[in-house]
Amino acid sequence: MLSTKNEALSVAVNEQLIGISWLSRLPFAYCGNVTPFRTDQAEEMEALAEELVLEFKLLGSNGVDFLVTERGPIVLEINPRFQGSLDTVEKAMNINLFEAHVGCFRGELPEKPKAKCFAARGVIYSDRELFIDRKLMDLILREKGADIPFSGTVIEPDEPLTSLFTCAPTREEAVLSLKRGANRVKAFIENKKEKNT
Question: What is the number of helices (H) and of strands (E) in the chain?
């Protein structure tokens, strides 16, 4: 969402990835997102979100979380801040959200962007206590990682290790690319464990 004092614009509808087994052992962990989210409820969510941010007099970049149900979308929360989906929204929609956010305070909204691709973010959680060394950091960087842990730190079990990003022409290809990247990181960690035992 972007909003000025008088107008609001739904920039993108994003799908949250929750409890994805190949990213986390935790059943309700936030595991990333895919932009755009194609659903027959998208237009209704956009309209409701625009109404809500204007009602709450929010400015700039905001987010509204929904639960998609058979009876229609249900509002879960309103987040007056930049979202975890910022990277995928910028890539898929070809927009600079920070510039657009600043423009909102001048009363300017951009044109509604159209999706150029499907962008996905996957948050990989560690399944064990994990020491971060240079080789693991290099692998994460090759995998287009973000949220890179510092060398020499320890990641606890069920804590986020890193985020991977991908773009593709379809949602399925984007998610498959994420899964392949996550599998390469996990295989590297498993091989490292076997060599140390």
Answer: 5, 12
Side chain identity at 2, as an amino acid letter?
Answer: L
Residue of 191 and 42 predicted with greater confidence = 42
The continuous run of DSSP H or E covering 114 comes out as: none
SS3 of 127, please?
Answer: coil
For the chain, the domains span: 2-196
Q: Which long-range contacts (CB under 8 A, 24 or more apart) does 11-14 make?
A: 11/89, 11/93, 11/95, 11/97, 11/100, 11/112, 11/113, 12/36, 12/85, 12/89, 12/92, 12/93, 12/113, 12/115, 13/37, 13/39, 13/42, 13/45, 13/46, 14/83, 14/85, 14/88, 14/89
Predicted model pTM: 0.89
Do residues 99 and 150 make contact, with C-beta atoms less than 8 angstroms apart? no
- 2-196: CATH class: alpha beta
